[in-house]
Amino acid sequence: MWIKALYAGPGETYRELGRLEPEQEVMVTERNRVGTWVRVRGSASDSAGEVDGWVLTGLLTLHPTLRLSQVPVNSELGDADLENIDDPELRRLYAVPVISRVSAQMQLVYQRGRLLGNDSRVVTKVGDSLTADPLYLTVLGREDNELGPFDFLVETMVFFGPQTGVESVAARVGMSTRVVFDPMWTRNALCEPNETPLACEYRLRRPSVALIMFGPNDVLHMDVDAFGSGLREIIEESIQLGVIPVLSTFSSHPESQVWEKTLAFNLTIVDVAEAYGVPLINLWSAARSLPNYGLEGDHVHMRHSGYRYLKFDIGNQARYGVSLRNFLSLRMLDEIRRTLGMS
Asked: Which residues have CB under 8 Å from 192's CB, separation 6+?
């Protein structure tokens, strides 16, 4: 049984108001911009008053006719209540929106990519084992995906989905911000001699967007300055080649031996994204509401739902890390496609 906690706002840092009873009927009155949280109202089961609060969308059994595109968006409340967070590093991370806006600079990058022959419909992924996961991103092209109430994401899934099933040269187990520029890690017969994994992937696929996540592997082998330098190099090469780089923070567990270091790495990701004006997915923040922060028992890899396709209709994005990451990636792609008028 999943606990349906009610909060005063769209996030677990807001004041907890109580819990919904099993089978309790409520009405969805508004949602956050991302769609991960909804505000519900209804009569309390003990008839002692009214239920009014925010709950993770995926924890509700929603009526099959509900379409979130028709639900008003609350534009006043942020993704976190920063007044309830004492630690300055945590406050900085929570202050970053789960899905950033798309800056004007990315319109210029997109236009450069079109001139260079990049395909608007191609998105690729760059990263370590969490990104190389065959059930991350590649599932967007499956015909049996169930988006449930997230009808506003259908067009974007249809737009990008068919091109996501190709294995990325730049996403492998052990990949890091350092070796993504090492030709020794380029193991594809179509790559040229002395070509780096990143350069080869961009040349072969000609993507318009690259979903990039490093950190879970890098944090074990390098210091934060070297990590930031590698990220900046990835961003600069992507922009030069007309590829919109989407950065992502990564989930981490407070019981991890490198917990403090993961915070520093995630803040570096935020700083680099802000410096270059590139899109950012704050997976770290969104995953705080999931069981075990969306992670497996190793506190590194993200937990799978057991499905080999998207099941947002039963709320997997509110329970499993890989499902959440797929949802947020699709949501960011939707933000990019709509903002830039991709066609």
From this structure: 200, 203
